[in-house]
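INFO batch 0412 | record 1 of 1 | parsing
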Amino acid sequence: MDSFTVAEARRLRLEAQGLGGRRWRDVAETVRGCGAVQAQDRMGEWLAIRARSEGLTAAAVERAQGEERSVARSWLMRGTLHLVGGADLRWMVGLLGAAMDRKALGRRRNLGITAEVYAGAMAVMGAALSGGRVLKLAELVERVREAGLPWEGQVVPHLLRAASMSGMVCSGPRRGGANTYALLDEWLGAEGDAPRDAAGELARRYFAAYGPASAADFRWWSGLPARESRAGFEAIQGELAEVEVEGRAAWMTGEALERSGEVLGEVLGGAAGRVRVLGAFDPYLLGYSKRELGVSAEALRRVHPGGGVISPTVLVDGVLVATWGRRRTARGMRVTVEPLAGLSDGVCAGIDEEVGEIGRFLGEEVSWRVEAG
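INFO prediction complete | emitting tokens
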């Protein structure tokens, strides 16, 4: 059995994620390459794609989702918003939607959403969006209110999420800086190719993008119930190679294992100190049940302060060295880096290069500074 050190495993994960030597040149290819991109934070979604691609821009991401429809956004893994390939959305919703929605039944009861209210709201939203119409959340709230159904607070957002998990609705194009929603069958077409074994295909995508990883990591990332998660893993176990990461069992694709010598020796061997500036909710940190390969226990409170937040980070060879925040100024976006310890000149040069790339990707001036203390 092949064995890797923690540092080597980090390098292999970086390469699998598109954060090492290789880059993708297409939005849909980038999204598929890292399994899916968490999309509850628009800037985080953009920056996840930026870090893994070459030559793309935020405008290209918006065109891919809002015009080309090669990627699509909906509630999927763990019941959270994700950007996935447009060709993949339907089967992913079919696999994940019902299980994720069941987890929200308690919240539905607390909001006072009865079966009658649920059915009525689904009918109202379906009629409002039919004929190729796309509407903002506020417009859907108004339709529900006009129908005499409960609409205040989080009732309609919850129902919209449920409609997405049922496969009725997905995100449409951005309009006036706000999300819109469309009927899935009208936005992406009523037909779509589905894998014979959806759970197995999701596991295949996961280990290609996150290996070396464990079956527990896959279950965490997918949010699938234990039985479905185990079935997906077992369906492709014969395609995977079992390895050890300092005594712990992990799995990766056979192709990735065959390339591991090249990745560790040639592709990344001369790139010690590789800096990556990642946005909030980045897949590299969200993809595992435990994050000890990239985030120490001491640093975890900084990157994961609570409330489901995963802060924007600066990594050096896959290890967290700083978090960062941003604010708007008259001259563009200002990034403030908060290091866990001192940053070397080489790391600062890497951050400078990354921030310059973020500015190119966003099409605006981006500057940065280190937070004193």
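INFO post-check: The chain has a mean pLDDT of 93.
INFO record closed
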